[in-house]
TrEMBL record, chains A, B, C, D:
CDD domains, A to Z: 4HBT
UniProt protein name: Acyl-CoA thioesterase
GO molecular function, one term: hydrolase activity
Family label: Belongs to the 4-hydroxybenzoyl-CoA thioesterase family.
Length: 139, 139, 139, 139
């Protein structure tokens, strides 16, 4: 499944060069992943409260192609690119209109926090949701 | 006691106006309070681990007089201005060299997190440390 | 005029106490003010590009009543409380459902950045927009 | 040259999992790069004021091995790994004591902001400073 996460660049996201301070792209990738998990039916806040499951980061990467400015409207398109037994890789493309601004990915582990944090096999139903094609939605 | 907390303005602290984004002053007041607690012998990380005590914020205020820029060297002078039974007010003055840049305060409650968070009387020895005059230190 | 700004608490807004790190409330007040200016017809990004006008902060205050947690839905109600010649005071109430979480205010100066930053009288039409009652909107 | 940048984890750097929110590692890599440039004689603030030169990011990557907690003391070891004509790659290793916490890199372009931003050949003397071995310093 692909999920779209839309946001607006805030004043506090900019720096003295007049454009977005780059670590904010990782903040937005993190937000986009939480939105993705909500969209497939597993909001992170519930997942943690009910099952003590979280998805800590193993690696994150971003390539920057165009700068973003204050009050730009941005869409992040997120898709799970790879699923291993306990680890998944989610890619994020940043778009302003049609223009690709940046693209990145995160590698995260499906992890139980019941005792000491310990990676767990990703449940079959989560895996199925991540891999399902997007349904065509009439608007 | 007065404590001095010195820091440097980072690139990420600035905004597109070329100066510091104002919420960062509150981040620095928070840091200055943690430094203050360390300086009187109660580092927050220990206080929480050993006694489940923290100091959540009740109110914070700041008045802004001069802007700060990238790589400015700044000193925050912190002093506990008022101590009530369970609540204290700590004031922070921001200086660049001799110049006063901003001044603010925080009101915080001495709080146990053992069960539900609950404000506690500030212990006598903490109170004494907060009120002690600065020792003259020969350098 | 009153403006409502709705947002969701993000993972990165929380701290190790499991609740929102308090300086983020000031980030949200800043965002709410920019949304307010957009709502009355003066988006900050345009105001600056077309007229080199911005509204730097003189003072900000917040009182904290209830903590906020990850993925809470929050509304900020913003209203200009006072308008002087060059300075206005905007108050912000944070609500989760009906519950008041925090309330604060910002004092800002209407400022030209054409040469050296210099406060300007707030234009009559801006003043009128800030003071107009909310129109009743049938939904 | 290798440069060491030492810092302490702040309360605001943590999240509700009790550890550092991962985008902060990129904030620290950015800080470490500015410290590196200062250490070889080109503080970013001067470089920009005097020559309108900055080093915008093209790509950043980080691999996370161990979490960091509040008030941890951390060292970032930064070294320029690769220098091309207009672009350099700087790697950053995060250490707590002897333990490797994370390692990452940034790819940045030496860029003139005189007119439109435009990448420039990295000057010979900068290149020489980046490549020089660390001098043995008697302490």
């Amino acid at each position: 499944m692909t999920n779209n996460y839309d946001f607006k660049v805030r004043w506090g996201d900019t720096d003295a060069a007049g454009i977005v301070f780059y670590p904010n792209f990782y903040k937005w990738m993190d937000e986009a992943t939480h939105e993705y998990l909500s969209a497939i039916g597993y909001p992170s806040s519930k997942l943690f409260q009910e099952q003590q499951i979280g998805c800590p980061i193993l690696e994150a990467n971003c390539q920057f192609k165009q700068p973003l400015s204050f009050e730009d409207s941005v869409r992040v398109q997120s898709i799970v690119q790879e699923i291993q037994n306990k680890v998944f890789k989610i890619s994020h493309v940043f778009l302003r209109g049609e223009k690709e601004i940046a693209k990145g990915y995160e590698v995260r582990a499906w992890t139980s926090f019941k005792d000491k944090p310990k990676a767990q096999p990703i449940p079959e139903e989560v895996r199925a949701k991540m891999l399902q094609p997007n349904q065509h939605v009439e608007v």
